Amino acid sequence: MTWLDDREQRVWRSWLQASQRLDAHLSRRMQADGDISMSDFAVLVPLSEAPEQRLRAFALGRALQWEKSRLSHHLTRMERRGLVAREDCGTDRRGAFVVLAPAGRAALEAAAPPHAEAVRSAVFDRLTADQVDRLGEVCDELLAGLDPDAACTEAGAAPCPTDAGSCADG
Q1: By CB neighbour count within 10 A (0-12 exposed, 13-18 middle, 19+ buried), where does 25 fall?
Q2: What does the pLDDT look like over 36-55, one tens digit per residue?
Q3: pLDDT of 150
Q4: Is the residue at 85 inside a domain?
Q5: Fewer CB within 10 Å, N- or C-terminus of the chain?
Q6: Which candidate, 49, 101, 94, 96, places its Cα nearest to that of 78?
Q7: What residues pair up with 96 in beta bridges, in sequence order?
Q8: In the chain, how many domains are there?
């Protein structure tokens, strides 16, 4: 086993502390400004961007990198609050669509502007243009080394399907 050297340990701990504090800060702001959680926001954004504002549940779970049980429980809570709806898939009894409800659209529209301002204030206003470019490059490099299908394949399943548009996709 190769341990992290002092420099790597310092950078790693700084990364963890910064990401944890940023997550906590944005979560508090989201709850205060938008009256929804960051998890709610994470669900609502891809639904708002999807064709017909609906996605297959498995595709949403894959996009969020959430396990099936976590997604199911969270969607149940969001359904109770009227933010999303689930619709059966007519050609696949096992499949379901998650649909953005009008209340979910309204919650997202209310939460997005203060969230963007919170991100700008906490991240981008603190960095130079060069630092923003470097941060983007670092994130791209890290993401390139992470398997997007890991959540599926680590559980022993086949790689996740990539097209979530129709019922026949899985």
Answers
A1: middle
A2: 999 999 999 999 999 999 99
A3: 54
A4: yes
A5: N
A6: 101
A7: 88
A8: 1
Q: Which two tokens stand for residue 34?
A: 């938008």
Distance CA 162, CA 59 (A): 8
Q: At 72, which CATH number?
A: 1.10.10.10
Q: Output DSSP code: residue 148.
A: T
Instruction: Band the pLDDT of 149: cuts 50, 70, 90.
Output: low
> What does the angle CA 36 – CA 37 – CA 43 come to, to the nearest 5 degrees?
95
Instruction: For residue 55, give the DSSP letter.
Output: E
- Beta-carbon count within 10 A of 114 CB: 14
Distance CA(87)–CA(90), nearest Å, equals 9
Q: Is residue 73 included in any domain, yes or no?
A: yes
Q: Across residues 64-75, what is the average pLDDT?
A: 95
Residues 97-139 have pLDDT tens digits of: 999 999 999 999 999 999 999 999 999 999 999 999 999 999 9
The pair of structure tokens assigned to 154 is 């680590």
Q: Is the pLDDT of residue 160 over 50?
A: no
